[in-house]
TrEMBL record:
GO terms for molecular function: calcium ion binding; calcium-dependent protein binding; identical protein binding; RAGE receptor binding. One of its GO terms (biological process) is positive regulation of canonical NF-kappaB signal transduction. Keywords: Calcium, Metal-binding, Repeat. GO terms for cellular component: cytoplasm; extracellular exosome; nucleus. Signal peptide: none annotated. The keyword Metal-binding applies. Transmembrane segments: none annotated. This is S100 calcium binding protein A12.
Length: 92
């Protein structure tokens, strides 16, 4: 695998590491999303321990309002974090 393919697989693996804990193994509950964010994105997102911040992120990601975050919905968060990281790299 190329380096990019390895990183893509890593994103999938991180999603499944958290999504398989409660309920549907292919979606994230709010609690699972909170654990993923606080453990995996603590240096990329601000206020990751603030419940209001987690609630807002969850509401923004849960496009179909079913109370779960699918992988497709999760990719939106990954894309936002990646865009922000890209902008920040150019500031340095």
């Amino acid at each position: 695998m190329t380096k990019l393919e390895e990183h893509l697989e890593g994103i999938i693996n991180v999603f499944h590491r958290y999504s398989s804990r409660v309920g549907d193994p292919d979606t994230l509950s709010k609690g699972e999303l909170k654990q993923l964010i606080t453990r995996e994105l603590k240096n990329s997102l601000e206020n990751t321990k603030d419940q209001a911040t987690i609630d807002k992120i969850f509401q923004d990601l849960d496009a179909d309002k079913d109370g779960q975050v699918t992988f497709d919905e999760f990719v939106v968060l990954v894309s936002r974090v990646l865009r922000t990281a890209h902008v920040n790299i150019h500031k340095e």
